[in-house]
């Protein structure tokens, strides 16, 4: 739903994304491992690059990424510092490391650091979202999924103000309706949708606003 009302989003036709400039930026916490899995299972092999922060301790994100990589049509990996963000790839923030979106010339790159926790978290969703606002602007599409607390709310508003389009998971499909609720309350969210509709809606939005070829 728009932050006030939610229309059903039809599943898009199979789509080839010829633009490598679009990005999908995802944040989640409690209940997020399954929500991220369900979201990524919807992504085609040629989708835009995806950066993900899931609140998770060090030592767990490597196995989480490997499990998703074996299930999904896209490549899923733990992010490393200075890696070019490629279409058809998802990059998960390592536990105890902030993940940011950077730029190297015309390319997007991953940036990792061990700066202070933000909202008591490292990695923090706000760190990723704010970097997307700075470095991607309207090329980014933000997704905030189930989770406790307010991490991501301020950063999602910065993304919206920079021209990004943002989606939040609805209360009924969340394990904990905390982070999405705060993001809506802060004014950073355009649409609130059930988890099952977020992937198809994101693809439909990218198809409508990117350079794509239907096949």
Structural write-up:
With 215 residues, the chain is α/β, with parallel strands linked by helices. The protein contains 6 helices and 11 strands. A hairpin with a 2-residue loop joins strand 6 and strand 7. The strands form 3 sheets. A 7-stranded parallel sheet has the order 4-5-3-2-8-9-10, sandwiched between helices. A two-stranded antiparallel sheet has the order 1-11. It has a two-stranded antiparallel sheet with strand order 6-7. Residues 5-20 and 211-215 have low confidence and may be disordered. The chain has helices spanning 32-41, 61-71, 125-135, 153-161, 179-186, 195-209, and strands at 15-17, 23-28, 49-54, 75-78, 89-92, 98-104, 107-113, 140-144, 165-169, 191-193, 212-214. It has one domain: Rossmann fold, CATH 3.40.50. Helix 1 crosses helix 6 (195-209) and helix 3 runs parallel beside helix 4. The radius of gyration is 15 Å and the shape is globular. Helices cover 30% and strands 25% of the residues. This is protein-glutamate methylesterase. One of its GO terms (biological process) is chemotaxis. InterPro entries: CheB_C, Sig_transdc_resp-reg_Me-estase.
In short:
This protein has 215 residues and is an alpha/beta fold.
What keywords describe this structure?
215 residues; disordered C terminus; two-stranded antiparallel ribbon
Chart the SSEs and their pairings:
Elements: E1 15-17, E2 23-28, H1 32-41, E3 49-54, H2 61-71, E4 75-78, E5 89-92, E6 98-104, E7 107-113, H3 125-135, E8 140-144, H4 153-161, E9 165-169, H5 179-186, E10 191-193, H6 195-209, E11 212-214
Parallel strand pairs: 2-3, 2-8, 3-5, 4-5, 8-9, 9-10
Antiparallel strand pairs: 1-11, 6-7
Helix pairs in contact: 1-6, 3-4, 4-5
């Amino acid at each position: 739903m728009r932050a006030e009302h939610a229309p059903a989003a039809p599943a898009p036709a199979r789509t080839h994304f010829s633009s490598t400039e679009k990005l999908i930026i995802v944040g989640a916490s409690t209940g997020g491992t399954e929500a991220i899995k369900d979201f990524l299972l919807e992504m085609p092999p040629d989708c835009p690059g995806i950066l993900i922060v899931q609140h998770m301790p060090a030592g767990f994100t490597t196995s989480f990424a490997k499990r998703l990589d074996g299930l999904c049509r896209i490549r899923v990996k733990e992010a490393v510092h200075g890696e070019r963000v490629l279409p058809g790839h998802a990059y998960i923030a390592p536990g105890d490391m902030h993940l940011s979106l950077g730029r190297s010339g015309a390319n997007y790159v991953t940036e990792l650091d061990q700066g202070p926790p933000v909202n008591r978290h490292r990695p923090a969703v706000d760190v990723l979202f704010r970097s997307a606002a700075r470095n991607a602007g309207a090329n980014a599409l933000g997704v905030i999924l189930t989770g406790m607390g307010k991490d991501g709310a301020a950063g999602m508003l910065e993304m919206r103000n920079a021209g990004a389009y943002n989606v939040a998971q609805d209360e009924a499909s969340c394990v904990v309706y905390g982070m999405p609720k705060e993001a809506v309350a802060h004014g950073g969210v355009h649409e609130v949708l059930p988890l099952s509709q977020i992937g198809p809606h994101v693809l439909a939005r990218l198809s409508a606003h990117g350079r794509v070829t239907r096949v």
